[in-house]
Design goal:
The structure is a single chain. With 349 residues, this protein is α/β, with parallel strands linked by helices. It has a single domain, classed as Alpha-Beta Barrel (TIM Barrel), CATH 3.20.20. Helices cover 48% and strands 15% of the residues. The protein has 14 helices and 13 strands. Helix 4 packs parallel to helix 5. It is globular, with a radius of gyration of 22 Å. The N and C termini lie far apart (51 Å). The N terminus is likely disordered.
Length: 349
Amino acid sequence: MSTSRRNFFKAAGLATALQASAQTSAKPFIVDCQSHLFFPEVLDMMRKRKTEPLVYDKDGTTYLKMGDWLRKVPPFYLDVDAKLAAMDASGIDITMLSTNDPGPEWFGKDGAAAARLIHDSLASVIARHPTRFRGLCVLPMQDEKAASEELDRCVKQLGFKGILLYTNLAGAWCDEPQFHWLYARAEELGVPILLHPAKPMTTEQVKGYELTSTLGNMFENTIAMARIIASGLLDKHPKLKLVCPHLGGTLPYICGRMDHQLHVLKRGPQNLQRKPSEYLRSIYMDIVSPLPEAMRFALDFSSEDKLLFSSDHPWVEPQAILDPLRSLKLPATTEAKILGGNAKALFNL
């Protein structure tokens, strides 16, 4: 072979290697599917309330009160710049932004007005940062007409990309018959429903040792998702896009028992078309559980096509979820799907 041809192939090989290296080292597109922000306007509204949920300030600290569940709301929970800085530090491109409980269902006859205030505040943040944020709506589920109208406004006028549905709605589980219309409407609109724990129904059982968030929220996810499966809603709405947070609570770990109870012992509903574990594998789960072994189990149980990166910021720093995920040293294509590829398709970004 001539020297010139040898140099040509050497150069071509180097170019190919450099291109492959660039593709391997290219920054993945990251979408944070669960991130929250409190809005000053909404806190001011709750400061004026005489009944709970309400907000008050004491010794320079803001408190959110719902019964004996008292939470501090530090300034950075309201700080858009702090959220953007956290996103930038972790390479997050887009955040699916929502408020957090109390949702409009806790405001009784004022629920529709509370929802509009929340969504107008959220839309204002998105308008200022249109390349970084997308919105998820929360609805006044105690009023079907108002909730349906607000859903249409959020999706069709404000351009929101999904629904954040609390696991319980002021004490009613989210699968109860009065809420079934929402699953049908979400399927019709093609927008995902993201479950999210609210003030846990098990608060009394887990409030000792401050275990409400550690255990109460995870039990909420587990119970709500198990009830949705058992209710038959996923048979009735096969095209529904559903996300369960925090790696499905404890349900992936125990759903074999649920399969056994229904299919072997014939306990519970006998009209389901599939095993409970099969329904669970058909939904999306986010990876907000900073333990690599748990992420690995969820990946093995489900698939790389059904896991979503979320941070649960501002309560969790994004790096606390990213580092365990990356410690698994997954194939680049798998990691890219989890970090953003699946979310881009799910939310039609």
